[in-house]
Amino acid sequence: MPVLTEGDESREREYRWRLEWGPILAIAAAFILGSVIQVAGLAAFSPTPYLVGSILQAIVAWAVLFWIVVYMLVELQLWRKTRSPGHELQFAGSLLVVMAPVILWIPFLIGGWQGMFSFSPTRIVAALLFMVSLFAGIGIALVGHYHPRLRASTVDVYRNVVVREGERIAELTDGYSTRVYTLRYSPIPEGGARSLADSWAWALRRAGLLLDHRVDDRGITVYPITDTGVGTFRLWTTFVHLYWLWRRPERLTWIRIAWDGSVLVHISPYDYARIRQPVAYHLLCAGVADAVVTSLLAFRPGEVEASAASLLRPPAGQWVRPVALPRTSHRWAAHAATLAALLLVTAGLASAVLAGLASTGRQGFAITGVTYPANPAPGQPVDVYMTLAGADDFYTSVVSTYAMSIAYFNESRGWRSDVRRIDATTYGVRLGAFADGTEVTFTLTAEVMGFGGPTSQTTVTSGPYVVRVGQVRVGGPSGLAIRDVQIGRTPSGNLTFSVDINSTAAIDLAQVYAGPYGPEPNNLTLSGNRWLAEVPYPPTPVQGEYSVVARDVTWNTATTGLRPLEATP
Amino acid sequence: MRASPAARNRLSRAQLFTIVIVAVVLAATGAVAYVLTRPEAPLRILSIDISPDPAVPGTAIVVDVHAEGGSALSPLSVELHYASFFAGGGGGGGTMEDRGGGHFTSDLPALENHTEVWLFAYAYTRSQGPVFSSHLVFPVGTILRGGASGLAFTNVTQVPERPGPLDTVKVTARVDSAATITEVRSAFAWLHMSFGSFGATSFSSGGGEGPVQEASPGVYTTAFPGMGGAPGGGGFEHGTVWFYRLTAADDTGNVAGTDILSFTVA
Hints:
The complex is a heterodimer. By secondary structure, chain A is α+β, with helices and mostly antiparallel strands. Chain A folds into 4 domains: about 5-155 and about 335-360, no CATH class; about 155-330, no CATH class; about 365-470, Immunoglobulin-like (Sandwich); about 475-565, Immunoglobulin-like (Sandwich), CATH 2.60.40. Chain A is built from 12 helices and 25 strands. In chain A, helix 2 packs parallel to helix 8 (about 235-245) and helix 3 packs parallel to helix 12. The model of chain A is unreliable at about 315-320 (pLDDT under 50). By secondary structure, chain B is mostly beta strands. Chain B has 1 helix and 18 strands. Chain B has one helix at about 5-35; strands at about 40-50, 60-70, 75-85, 90-95, 95-100, 105-110, 115-125, 130, 135-140, 150-160, 170-175, 180-195, 200-210, 215, 220-225, 240-250, 255, 260-265. In chain B, a hairpin with a 2-residue loop joins strand 5 and strand 6. The chains are: A alpha+beta, B mainly beta. The interface of A and B includes residues 117, 394, 398 and 424 of A.
C-alpha cells in the first residue's frame, strides 16, 4: 500500500526543482542576460554589446526550439509506446508549439517580406492560427505534463519503479552489475491468468507506468517507463533512449515474469544512475521484481489503481496515498486535443502557404501596364505611365527609374529622362511635346533592390514602345526599306555601320542611333551603294541597342526598330 | 483509504497553477488588445523656439519643438529641416532628440554673422502626419534689409499653381535693385509620407539650394524638380509637400527674401 512521508515530499520537491524549475530558470536567465546586454548596448550606443546580446538571445531561442522539437519526438515515442493520455497531450501541445513558428515563417519563405507583413485575409488567418496554436500548445502540453492523474511529468517519468525501489534501500552499498538478476516465485496458473497479465500490462501502459510489454508462451516481459533526459536538456541521453526504444529495447530496464514463477530483472545503467544513494544491485533487482510481481498479482480488471500502487510505493510511512490514474474521459479528452491540434496545424499551414503564394513579393519585379498616347497630336505632351509590379512602399527600394528615348524624322535626339514615382507602384514620365511627323521610340527601365540589400538588386526593362506624332508616313509607294545592317569595330573601338537603304525616291534622311551612353543620332553617308557611319565608342565590349532610321523625299519613313548592339571585330 | 493533506495540497496546487496560467494569458491578451486598439492622441506641434533668441554669431543654436500626440506603440517623432543664406550657407536637418514631456531638440551648428536661417519641423507617428510647424526665418547677428538700393522681389509666379506628378514647376521672380544684383538663390525642401500595415511608415524627403539663373534682365527662373530629380523617382509623388524660398543680394550688401512658398503635388 503506497504511503507518503515528509521525506518523500521533500524528495519530490527536490526533483521538481532540479528537473523542471531549474532548467526553465536557466533558460530564462540566459534570455534575460541577452536582453540586458542588448539594452546596455543600446543605452551606450555601442554596437558590440548589442550584437553579443542579440546573438545570445538568438542562440537561446534556436536552442529552445530545437529542444522542443526533440521533446515532441520523445513524447510521440512515449505516446506510441504507452498510449498514455498524458504523453498524447504533451505530444499534441509540443506539436502546436513547434508548428506555430513554422506557420509564421512559411509566408516569408514562399512570398518574401511582403508575404510576411501583408494584410491579406489568408495572412491574417495564418497569424491568428499562429497565436492560437502557440498558446493552445503551451496550455495542452502543461495539462498533459502536470495533471495529477496523467503521471506524465518529468518527475513521474524520472522516478520510475527502479528509482522508487532504490530510494527504499537506505543502507546498501553501491554494487551495480550489468548481469541479469534472477528470482523465482510460485508458478502462475495457465489460461485466464496469462491473458490477465496482458491486460495488466496494457492498463499500466495507458497509466503511463509501463513503456512496453511482450507476451509469449513462456512469460511476459515488461519495460517500466523511463526518463529520457529531454526535460533536463541531456540530449545525448535522449538520443540514446530514442535509439533503444526503436532498436534496442533489451538495453532498457525490463522485467520478465515467466509462467513457471522465475523472474528476470535487467536494470539499465541510466535508471540505476538516477538512484542518488548507494544500493546493492541484487537487492534493487529483488525490490523491483517484488514490486512488479505484486502489481501483477494485485491486478483486477477495472481496479488498476491497486495494481499501480505497488509500482509507485514510496518508503514506509504513515499516510496512505491514493493512486490517481487516467480515466476514459481523460483518454477521450487527449484524443480530442490531438485532433484539434492536427486541425489547427493543417489550417495554419494551409493558410500560411496560401498567404505566401499570394504574396506580391513572389512574382518578382516587372514593368507592366505601360500606357502612352501612341499617336498624339503635334505639341501634345507625351505622358507615359507604368506599374512596377512586385514593388511596394516598405520592402523594396527603387534605386532608379528612367526612360531612354530617341526622336527622329522631324526631330533628332536621344535622351534619358527620370521616371517619377506617382504612388506605391505607379510611375510616370513626360517625354515631352513633339513636332508633327516625329517618331519617338522609348524603353523603360527600373533598378530595384529588395529587402536583401545590394545582392538582391534587379534591373527590369520594358519596351521598346513607338509614338508617332501627327502624321508619320510608313509603307508608302516609294518602297523605302532598310536591309543588311553590318556592324564592325575599328582598332580604336569605334563602331562602323554599313547599311543597305533602298527607295524609288531619293533618300532625304539616314541616321543610326547608337552610342556608349545610349542611342545618339549619327548621320549615315552614301558610299557606293551602301550607307556608312562611324560611331565613337570606347574599346570596351559593346552593349545597348541601336536603331537605323531613314526617310525619303516623299516623306515615306522606315526604321529597323531598336535592336541589340552586337559588333563583329 | 484517506487522502493525505499533502496529496490534497498537491491537487490544489495543480488546479491553482492552471488557473494562474489561464488568468495570465487572458490578462496579457486583454492588455495587448487594449494597447493595440487604444485610439492615438491627435498630432499637434504646439511651438517651435530657438535659443539663444536672437541668435548669436558663433554660438550653436538650439531648436526646441513642443509637440503632442502618438502613443506607446505609435510614438511621436519630430524631424527638423533648415537652410541658411547669405554669409553662411548650406543646410540640413534630421531627427530631433526626444527630451521628454513632448519636447524635441536639435542643435544647429554655429553660424557666422550676417547669415539668415530658415527652419521648420514636422511631426509624425506610425499612423499620422506629417504635421508641420510654423516656419522661422531669423537673422544671425545682423543682416542689412531694406537698404538704400531698394533690393526687393516684386513679382513671384509659379506655373502651374497646382502641379501634377509629371509637371515641372517653373518659378519666375522679378528682382529690382538700384545696385548690381550679385546673386539670387533658391532653397527648397519636400516631404512625402505613407503608412503601411503593421505600423510601417514610408518616408521620403529631400532638399537643396542653388543659384537661380537670370532669364532676362531682372527676371530669374528656376524649376522643380531640377535636373536628376530624386533617387527612385521620388519628389513628385501624389501628396508630396514642397516648400521653397528665393533670396537675393546686391553689391551694397543689401539682402531680400521671399516668403516661404509652398505647393502640394495633386
